[in-house]
Amino acid sequence: MYFFGKTDIGKKREVNQDAFSSEKMCDNVFVFLVCDGMGGANGGNIASSVAAKAFLDSMREEIQKRSEDGKKCELSPDAAEVMLIKSVQSANRAVYLESEKNDELSGMGTTLVGALVVDNTAFVVNVGDSRAYLIFGNVIDKVTHDHSYVQYLVDIGELTEEEAKNNVNKNIIMKAIGIDEKVEPDVFRVEFGDNAFLLLCSDGLTNYVEESVIKDTVLSFDYESNLSKSDDMERVCNTLVDIANENGGGDNITVALYLHEHKD
Questions:
Q1: Residue 216: its H or E element
Q2: What angle do CA 222, 226, 228 make, to 5 degrees?
Q3: Residue 226: pLDDT above 80?
Q4: Record: fold of 2-260
Q5: Distance, CA of 155 to CA of 258 (rounded, Å)
Q6: Are 200 and 20 in contact (CB under 8 A)?
Q7: In 2-11, which positions are buried (b, 16+ CB within 10 angstroms) versus exposed (e)?
Q8: Secondary-structure breakdown of the chain: helix, strand, coil percentages, each rounded to the nearest 5
Q9: Comparing C-alpha atoms, which of 203, 206, 228 is closest to residue 215?
Q10: Which residues contact 141 (CB under 8 A, 6 or more apart)?
Q11: Half-sphere exposure (CA, 13 Å, Cβ side) for 49?
């Protein structure tokens, strides 16, 4: 597997409230996530960093329970989904309690999109409007479903997908980590094909870069390049961030890209 992540403040914001983290937890398990914080001058970056740490800590604890030798972890699909939900709840609790301690942080929250890769399957969890995309062949497939007001209007037929792109309410989210004592995430299951990419990103990318451009940029990955695969993953992520900035860069931009080389 190959992974690269990048976060950038963008062109308009004074603080970067995004965060990403990743960890290989045993030979066949890799976990990574992206958070997009919100809430005051410092609240957003605290919320995103607290959530990311709590999520990874919980995942690590759960994986260690199921890996006797620390090398390979046996996980059923049901167990993987339960683990992800539990880890999201841990992240939610950590942010909520932190905001309760400090009046200046009251109301802070963060989106979270995370992936648990086990062998040739990824289990994806999300709260908010940060997204996961599966990219392979000449296809980009949005795995997650935004928890946003505009997406709700699309779902009930009040807006088309095209109208939603420029709607003035596009940044209103209906669910976030840390706002309430409990939160219910969505969980998705993805089966990898040969040489498939899983991209997690904040809306600082998707609000400024069309999905077709995201797809073409990721698929510009050159297996025959003189660059190492790790270096070319970095080039792809840097290019995505550069395009978002060239198109306005009105928000923090975070991309986390995983390349799965299918091995039977």
A1: helix 211-218
A2: 75
A3: no
A4: Phosphatase 2c; domain 1 (3.60.40)
A5: 29
A6: yes
A7: bbbbbbbbbe
A8: 35, 30, 35
A9: 206
A10: 133, 134, 135
A11: 8
User: Which of 182 and 103 is assigned the larger pLDDT?
Assistant: 182
Residue 93 has φ and ψ, to the nearest 5°, of: -65, -40
Q: Which of 88-92, 104-108, 128-132, 134-138 has the lowest mean pLDDT?
A: 104-108
Per DSSP, what are the bridge partners of residue 38? 109
pLDDT at 264 over 60: no
Q: Where are the domains of the chain?
A: 2-260
Rg of the chain in Å (alpha carbons): 18
Q: What does the block give as tokens for 69?
A: 């030798």
Could you tell me which of 114, 136, 141, 107 has the C-alpha nearest to residue 5?
Answer: 114
Report which of 60, 123, 118 is spatially closest to residue 87, judged by C-alpha positions: 60
pLDDT of res. 117: 96
Residue 161 binned pLDDT confidence (cut-offs 50, 70, 90): confident
Alpha-carbon distance 48 to 189, whole Å? 24
What residue ranges in the chain does DSSP mark as E strands?
Answer: 2-8, 18-26, 29-38, 109-110, 112-118, 121-127, 131-136, 139-142, 186-191, 196-201, 253-260
**For range 147-176, the mean pLDDT:** 91
